[in-house]
Amino acid sequence: MATQADMKKAMSQAAQTGAATAKKLVEDTTVQARAAVEKTMETANKTAGDMLKAAEEAAEFGRGNLEALTKASQLYVTGVQDLSRQTMAMFQAFSEHTIEGVKALSSVKSMKEAADFQASFTKTAFERAVNDTTKISEAAMKLAEASMEPISARMTLAMEKMAKPIAA
Description:
By secondary structure, this protein is an all-alpha fold. Helices cover 93% and strands 0% of the residues. The protein is rod-shaped and about 160 Å long.
């Protein structure tokens, strides 16, 4: 039969073993918890860094878009002003040509001379109008291309960025 001293000794050993096991369990759990928290913090920091980088890139891209739009607008306004000057010059030249024609028509001596002059005047005016209109149309096309180029470049860049896979 077990004596009281043996029981005390067995209980003491059981208590020591239980305490050692509990201590080991607490230590292991603490190490695992610390590792889990560190891993979570590392992941959170990386995610926050990635999000910050993405936000900075988006802001920079938006700034580039605004700059392209501003440049396109400046090119367009400058080009429209130039087209307006060309158009006014064309109308002024046409008006001067008409005044010269009226003066010349008033000095003709016969109906044949008037008819010949009118035919020549009309032909010259038509050729000049076609030539001037062609020049203005070409300038307008060049203006459209030039003012759209900054926006087209940004669209190309946007398509290239969208085509790239998102970094993991």
